[in-house]
Amino acid sequence: MKKHSTEAIPLILDFCIWLENQKKSPSTIKTYKRELEKYQEWLQEKETGIHHLKKADIQSYIYYLEEQKKSVTTIDKTIGVIRTFSKYLGKPELTFGLDMQPVEKNTQIETLSAKEYTQLLKKVKEDGNLRNVTIVYVLLHTGIRISELCSLDRSHINLSNRELIVRKNEKQRIIPLSKETREFLQMYLNSHSHEAVFISNVGERLTERAVQYMLKKYDVNPQKLRHTFCQRLIDNKVDVETVSRLAGHKDINVTKKYIKAQMNKQKVEDAINQAFKSNKIG
Predict the structure, then answer these.
(1) Residue 232 gets which letter from DSSP?
(2) Which of 5, 137, 145, 270 has most Cβ atoms within 10 angstroms of its Cβ?
(3) What are the φ/ψ torsions at residue 153 (nearest 5 degrees)?
(4) Beta strands 171-176 and 163-168: pairing type?
(5) Burial 243-277 (b: 16+ CB within 10 A, else e)
(6) pTM over 0.70
(7) CA–CA distance, 280 with 64 (Å, rounded to integer)
(8) What residues form DSSP beta bridges with 166?
(9) What are phi and psi of 176, to 5 degrees?
(10) Which ranges in 72-173 belong to alpha helices (H)?
């Protein structure tokens, strides 16, 4: 941070502690801290600071980000940080009615095709890293979030009952484990004695960034694996309520988008079949 902004540091650090108490992941807290520091630097140039947060300054910051050619999505995320900070200060009204361009939500669901699914498992197995193979199977066959994966402890896995327990914000959900996932988990857990399930080469709990970096080598991301889990269940006639519960969706409408994706795919397939019926040509 630039000079004269040191008085804001304790407030930002207190905010980060509050985020920890709200069960935010370390990567999320780091992002929030970085964005607030950027905003504080901008405010310092205006001879003010986050101690004196004003709606007019937040609006001006939006205009500034737009002038800097930041994307609508980036601006929305930045203001989301300031919005959360305003709630922390007990002044949520500061972010009400801001002039912002609406974010165009991408409704496209990216999943692995059957061929991509097979190739991914084949390639990660060929690389021979038991931990990475186990991670891919857990993400693909349970649909858990990357933050949930990294926070798994041994006590969350019950191989005898063939289930995985995910705890989040004092709530929990139980996900059945596939045979292959159980086998790889068993082998991997036997390879170390730490309480954390997934660990680094130096025995520390694996970070979200490390998992993302590993998956990037295979041209996939955690969200795509999660989408694949949900879509495969829907495609195999599992009811939407069950999929919603297994995925931990707060809103069942989030789960219903997989039904729409399935219907759109079927519609295209039916159209192709209809267009190319075995009517002899010529």
Answers:
(1) H
(2) 137
(3) -115, 165
(4) antiparallel
(5) bbebbbeeeeeebebbeebeeeeeeeeeeeeeeee
(6) no
(7) 64
(8) 173
(9) -60, 145
(10) 72-88, 114-127, 130-142, 146-150
Please give the full DSSP string across 21-75, using - where no structure is assigned: HTT--HHHHHHHHHHHHHHHHHHHHTT--GGG--HHHHHHHHHHHHHTT--HHHH
Find, among 154, 222, 229, the residue nearest to 185 by Cα: 154
Q: Cα angle at 95 between 94 and 96, to 5 degrees?
A: 100
C-alpha dihedral sign at 253, 255, 257, 262? negative
Closest C-alpha to 18, from 84, 78, 92, 91: 84
Q: Note the pLDDT of residue 255.
A: 87
Query: Which tens digit of pLDDT belongs to each residue from 153-199?
Result: 999 999 999 999 998 777 899 999 999 999 999 999 999 999 999 99
- Which pair of tokens denotes residue 281? 């040509």
From the list 108, 103, 106, 138, the residue with the least C-alpha distance to 121 is: 138
**Which pair of tokens denotes residue 45?**
């140039």
Return the DSSP state at 6: G
